[in-house]
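wait is this the right file?? whatever heres the structure
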């Protein structure tokens, strides 16, 4: 190595230090290679069995609900050195463990998030069918009681059912009742020329029937066209309202 004569002393010192470091590195490597087999052989039978037991118990430890995500990440960092992913029609994961062993895993490619979030046609059809008799809140309870879950694995709620209705243009429970001719409280009051409070009173008495139309237990009234109700009379000698009895006129054929 060509060195300026004025810097020869410095160069000699650096070269000596470099050679010393190389010698130390070589000694350490040789010592490790010599002692590693000896230390491995020094493990007694009990220690070896404990290591095997730990490896066998790993799936149970990993699946333990008390192990949070942070601990699982720490376990992975201890066990896995690196992972190489190759994406094609299938995903190939080349895993190199900390001990030097390698594993190759083949996995299906996950669906796009938009497709994962998309509700299955049979689920949408079931919502459409249930809306004929139930409101959003009741449908959510029916799904949850049946063990159904959203794409996130969460229980259904009122907002989720309403989202399905809006996304797939499904008529609401109220709209379906209106299409069947059911009336609002105001319309019933105008039909019988009574107060709206009287409409609710008749409902409690069972004179008219109410169908729940939304999540707040509000509803519409099913009033047959031929229904006639005799209004009650308040006061000391109060007379409750009642349905008028319908008398079918007899015919000459009936008399025979």
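ok assuming it is, sequence goes like this
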């Amino acid at each position: 190595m060509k060195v300026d004569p004025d810097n020869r002393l410095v160069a000699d010192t650096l070269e000596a230090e470099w050679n010393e470091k190389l010698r130390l590195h070589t000694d350490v490597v040789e010592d490790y290679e010599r002692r590693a087999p000896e230390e491995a052989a020094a493990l007694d039978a009990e220690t070896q069995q404990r290591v095997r037991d730990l490896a066998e118990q790993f799936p149970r430890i990993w699946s333990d609900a008390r192990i949070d995500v942070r601990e699982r990440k720490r376990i992975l960092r201890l066990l896995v050195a690196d992972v190489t992913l190759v994406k094609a029609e299938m995903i190939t994961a080349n895993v190199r463990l900390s001990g030097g062993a390698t594993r190759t895993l083949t996995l299906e490619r996950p669906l796009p998030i938009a497709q994962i979030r998309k509700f299955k046609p049979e689920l949408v059809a079931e919502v459409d069918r249930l809306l004929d008799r139930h409101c959003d809140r009741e449908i959510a309870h029916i799904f949850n009681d049946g063990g159904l879950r959203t794409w996130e694995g969460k229980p259904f709620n009122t907002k989720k059912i309403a989202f399905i209705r809006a996304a797939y243009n499904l008529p609401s429970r109220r709209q379906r009742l209106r299409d069947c001719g059911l009336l609002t409280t105001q319309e019933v009051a105008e039909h019988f020329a009574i107060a709206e409070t009287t409409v609710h009173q008749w409902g409690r008495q069972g004179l008219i029937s109410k169908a729940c139309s939304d999540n707040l237990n509000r509803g519409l009234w099913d009033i047959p066209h031929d229904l006639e109700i005799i209004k009650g009379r308040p006061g000391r000698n109060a007379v409750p309202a009642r349905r008028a009895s319908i008398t079918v006129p007899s015919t000459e054929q009936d008399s025979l």
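Residues 252-256 have pLDDT under 50 and may be disordered. so i think its the right one actually
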